[in-house]
Amino acid sequence: MLFLFLLSPFIFLGCHKEDDYLPGLSGNMVGYIYTFDEFGNLLVDHSHVKVTAIGMDQTYSRHSDVTGRFELEEVPTGTFELHFEKEGFGVLKQFGVQHLGGKPTILLNNRSEEEAYFLYEMPASIIDHLKIVNDSMSCEFSFAIIPNPSTSFLLKVFFSSSDHFTRHNAEYIEDVRIWQRDGNYWGKFYFNETPSSPGETVYYKACRFTIPGVIRPPYQNWNVYGVDTYFDYELNETIYPNLGDESEQYSFTFPE
Amino acid sequence: MNLNSILLLFRNRAILLTGIVLWTLTSSCEELPEPLFTNSVIHGNIDLYDSYDEALENISITAQGPYEKKKGLTDSNGDYQITGLGNGTYELEFSKEGYGTKYQYGIQLFGNDTVRVRDELYKRMTGLKLPTLYEIHTQDTYSWLSEKKIVITTSRSQGEIPARVFMSEDDGVSYNNFQWTSNARTLKRNGFDKLMLIVDNLPFDSGKKVYLRVYICNPDEHWGYFNKYTGMLTFSTLEKDEHSSLMSFTMP
Lengths: 256, 252
What we know:
The complex is a heterodimer of chains A (256) and B (252).
Chain A: H1 2-13, E1 26-36, E2 50-54, E3 59-63, E4 69-76, E5 78-85, E6 92-99, E7 105-106, E8 114-120, E9 125-133, E10 136-143, E11 153-160, E12 172-181, E13 184-188, E14 201-209, E15 214-215, E16 224-227, E17 230-232, E18 237-239, E19 250-253
Parallel strand pairs in A: 1-7, 1-8, 8-16
Antiparallel strand pairs in A: 1-4, 2-3, 2-5, 5-6, 9-10, 10-13, 11-12, 11-14, 12-13, 14-19, 15-16, 17-18
Chain B: H1 3-27, E1 40-48, E2 60-64, E3 69-73, E4 79-85, E5 88-95, E6 102-109, E7 114-116, E8 119-121, E9 133-137, E10 150-154, E11 163-168, E12 180-187, E13 196-199, E14 209-216, E15 225-227, E16 232-234, E17 247-250
Parallel strand pairs in B: 1-7, 1-8
Antiparallel strand pairs in B: 1-4, 2-3, 2-5, 5-6, 9-10, 10-13, 11-12, 11-14, 12-13, 14-17, 15-16
């Protein structure tokens, strides 16, 4: 009894909040994340993606369910960084997510098109014998999982006039869609800008990546657009979370 | 009453009293803070689908936010305005008697925000009863059907049947657990004296066992709306209690 009476002033004092953040509300955050294999095929089970909201002082985490829905609970008002992680998948980040509190924040609610986040499996392949002849790029792959012959995929090709370059300081970047044809991998290739002068040696390397951008979920009549990249302000570049390992460096002489 | 009984009674009352005091003190912690701003506005327009002759006034809008619930009504043009809202995230409910109620979520207000939200309501099929549904026929039993179509024989002889079909490979299929949904068209075919429901463009693979339930729902609400909170495709005019029993068929 005496203990309860002694405890009560401390409970009362506990009501005083030291961190009186403005405007001092909290609420849930709801969103949707869809998962894809390394070739951009929509998976059936979107569960176990760990979604983390990183705030000033605390982080809040939840896992997505099989439909891709997640709900972070009782998150205080503020601006958050979101991380989406699943083993074997690229990590997607989002910055400056505003959460006012009260009723649930619906993530991406104010975007004109995108309704969900997309997370892709990391590509597991080695790119060999990358070759550019005229307007064609051909290459060989060592795949962990052999893709269906009708599957196409993307290469991000990095170019530089320097033979010691990384993809972060490439002078020119081009995306090439690669198809299988007669057992070979091949893609039509155009330079949108001229990266070099005729006769000069151009160095290049490539990574695989995935970017469906839009999907039509099974049995549904509407398209879902997704957010699958982010801009890294420190690196000052757009990040493709499932960019695979770099190929060796190759070179060619820019045609006269 | 001996001394021990009196002491016990006193102790029990004291414990009760202490509990009440503690509850009062702790519950005061749950009070919401004062809103930083109280001059935000949600406004917009609500339309009634296919009701050209019906006045658009008195459609009810309820804004539920962190601090309070505020209501508004549309004028004769369907326009509404709810003022004096505090900062925070709001949910809106649009309703009118005889129409399906719809919801919008995640409306964020801060400072002097003015946010426009529009919507459209569809008439409910209140009072309509689903006829008895007898059998599902596929191409296997009605050769004139294509492989992606089924017909369901019914007990009714005339009129349209405003039916929506929910299908799944799961036998727990319902309006909130389905893989595919579609309006069912009412069909009267020569040689049959009863109406049939026809469903086409079925997306299921050949040989799959498919379960279905049929509900009363306004067929004008073709696509429903995506409920951004639940993540479910939702039909505001669906009569949840007016549905068929569980039926099944195998895709030909």
